[in-house]
Amino acid sequence: MSELLIISLMAGLCTAVGAVLLFIKRKWSNRSLAVFLGLASGVMIAVVLFDMLPSAFLFYEKSKGLAGILAGIVLLFMADKILLARASGYSKSLIGLGYLIMLGIALHDLPEGIAIAMGSELKDRTGAVIALGIAIHNIPEGMAIAAPLIMGGMKRRSILLKISLIALVTPAGTLLGQLAVNSVPQTMPFLLGFASGIMLYLVLFQLWPQAGKKGPRARWLGFIAGLVIIFLATFI
Fold first, then answer.
1. Structural domain tally of the chain?
2. What is the 3-state secondary structure (H, E, C) of the chain?
3. pLDDT tens-digit profile of 40-75?
């Protein structure tokens, strides 16, 4: 297994870390969660602005890059809409709700793995930084899966096993991204845009709003810290 796949797997396994943290401590302060989600948002936005989009637009075809961004946003939007449409059927079952959240996260994890692969095509550091941002936001996702399953009475060992299996989706996406680039290099600008669109959607429609619910002001601390960290790593 390549180093990149190992990094991608570790990012995916952070979903299981979130579940374990929930096993240990059921309640976290809203401020802490807001800073945490804000940090993930800042890291992802910085990677898109400083690495992904400049490469897609300056060194490749802009039209393909823009098409990729649109495709990434539309894919996650449709996935969310489909899941929301099915949610009412599970609303009375905590176990069902947990599985629904698990399915949604799995659908997100595949393109997130592709984003890691695309970042690594630019620089090894970029792929690792994207993986870091995904790892950070996977932790509260693991909590989101585990909470209804715990309340529904599922055994913790079973919860951890199921969430650990979800972690395999991220490296699967990374492998898919690597195969696409190696087989059809012409897809590189589209895939860079696609990965950027995925991360933009995650930040704008999931991470940032969730952080706002936990702490409208506290989220900015994490966000600014994420931007500064990636800016310094990129230009210094």
1. 1
2. CCHHHHHHHHHHHHHHHHHHHHHHCCCCCHHHHHHHHHHHHHHHHHHHHHHHHHHHHHCCCHHHHHHHHHHHHHHHHHHHHHHHHHHHHHCCCHHHHHHHHHHHHHHHHHHHHHHHHHHHHHCHHHHHHHHHHHHHHHHHHHHHHHHHHHHCCCCHHHHHHHHHHHCCHHHHHHHHHHHHHHHCHHHHHHHHHHHHHHHHHHHHHHHHHHHHHHCCCHHHHHHHHHHHHHHHHHHC
3. 788 778 878 877 777 767 655 678 888 988 998 888
